[in-house]
Write a structure and sequence with these properties.
The structure is a homodimer. By secondary structure, chain A is mainly α. Helix content of chain A is about 75%, strand content about 0%. Chain A is built from 15 helices and 2 strands. A two-stranded antiparallel ribbon of chain A has the order 1-2. At the A-B interface, helix 6, helix 7 and helix 8 of A face helix 6, helix 7 and helix 8 of B. Chains A, B: It is an enzyme of class 2 (transferase).
Chain lengths: ~300, ~300
């Protein structure tokens, strides 16, 4: 296992331990909602968004503990979005990460509520952190996350994705979906982490910009891997885009050109990390890993 | 029209004007989500939660403008909860306030996303307000609202309501549902308003306590009116609880005893307003109106 993998695994272990702490405790009534929320929150995953938030906080000289509530909130928001995306009325997926989707286990009503519950919980955790220490740092981080997740961020990406389902997409619409559905939350994670770590507005904007580039490159690579890799390598069904007649970067531009676009975005993000200096080495390695996997 | 009605109508007009301001603007892509969000947000309604928040803020000497973002956020959270409650997987209602429910007009996928969008938008508005002026007041109001809406508030009330659907309820479970599903947000509105207006912790807790009593009394009265009033008087189908074989205060205790319980809670809330003094006259009149209607 190389150094990056070791560091990622350490982050993942740390984040999963803290996610437990920030999950609501079951009280007197039906445990089902808490089970449903935990089922999807603890279903594996690379914990990229909280990892990036915490790494960005450290990269500018902050303490990771300051970022924790916001990092955990981000993962809860990400998980809520997956639960709702999988619903029968949306993508109607039966499996995610090799396990039954939330609504297949807990029913559609509880899955909707489990998603809602995770979003509520994220809001509660961040509100608590802001109240505990009301400052431009805490409220700025919450603002970055709220905007990244919201109606001009992740949510509108999902709306447009659902809206154009089964229809061919123009390149600008596909780019809009990737920028919002995937990249907005990665952008928010890096920006929020930098703000919490005490970065100036200009530096925080550099983190945000790197995040947007990483997010889009990551999604393009995902489109490519859907075509080029085997199910064993990817750990999920391949050729799903083709089966769903989905417009992707690959169907629009072909594999080679798509790889070029992703590489260019990745290199631009790496330039930003280089300019920002030593503190960003982990983020630079992570960027390489996320946007240039060739398996 | 009596004085209270006039004042309520003035509040409603003011709140509806401001809700427009705080709604996200449509940008380049499909207007459907913005239409779906607006469809339910501007479907009438008494705007009780934002009205109470703003009135509480003024009652302790605050300016209503300080409460506005939080008041509008509360109404958006309330509306999101109605959209999701009406979904086929939940209560499966076709009509609300005499109009088709959100999913009957925009489809189930867009209704889920419109609900999500309103909750996201509430979070964005409150985060912006807190960032603009990070203080114990703003973050405390956001915290009160986040907790009132969340997994130990409104949401758990809905979960328990869904969980026990079609089963007979014990009195303590019915009380739990009313306290959480209905009263938690009224409690939060009054507490958040008082905090924003500059109340001490003790006074803010008095507002919260009054809110809980009003919320439960209001819900019990709703159960009673479902049995005693005509459809013309109520403006919605009556006897719906009986048709749905729903356990209510009326099925558990009968009409007379239910009215006694509601009256006692209402009187306790009114005592709190009396103790808090002159500033709370509107809230006192509103409490009478909401918990003692006899038609």
């Amino acid at each position: 296992m190389n150094d990056l993998n070791k560091q990622m695994n350490q982050w993942i272990a740390y984040i999963e331990e803290k996610l437990e702490v920030f999950m609501p405790k079951q009280e007197q009534f039906p445990p089902v909602i808490f089970e449903a929320m935990a089922y999807s929150l603890f279903a594996g995953g690379k914990r990229l968004r909280p990892m990036m938030l915490l790494a960005a906080c450290e990269a500018v000289g902050g303490e990771k503990e300051e970022g924790l509530p916001f990092a955990c909130a981000m993962e809860m928001i990400h998980t809520y979005s997956l639960i709702h995306d999988d619903l029968p009325a949306m993508d109607n997926d039966d499996y995610r990460r090799g396990r039954l989707t939330n609504h297949k286990v807990f029913g559609e009503d509880m899955a909707i509520l489990a998603g809602d519950g995770l979003l509520h919980n994220a809001m509660e955790i961040m509100a608590d952190a802001c109240y505990h220490n009301p400052s431009k740092k805490t409220t700025g981080a919450m603002q970055a996350i709220a905007h990244g997740a919201g109606i001009h961020g992740m949510l509108i990406g999902q709306v447009v994705d659902v809206f154009y389902e089964g229809k061919p997409l123009e390149a600008n619409i596909l780019e809009f979906i990737h920028i919002n559905k995937t990249a907005a939350m990665i952008r928010a994670a890096l920006k929020a982490g930098a703000i919490l770590g005490g970065a100036t507005d200009t530096v925080a904007e550099s983190f945000a910009l790197a995040g947007e580039k990483i997010g889009v490159a990551f999604q393009i690579l995902d489109d490519i891997l859907d075509v080029t890799s085997t199910m064993e390598e990817l750990g999920k069904p391949i050729h799903s885009d083709e089966r769903n007649e989905k417009t992707t970067y690959v169907t629009l531009y072909g594999i080679e050109k798509s790889r070029e676009i992703a590489c260019k975005l990745s290199d631009e993000a790496i330039s930003i990390w280089n300019e920002l200096g030593e503190g960003c080495i982990f983020l630079k390695d992570l960027t390489e890993y996320l946007t240039k996997r060739t398996y």
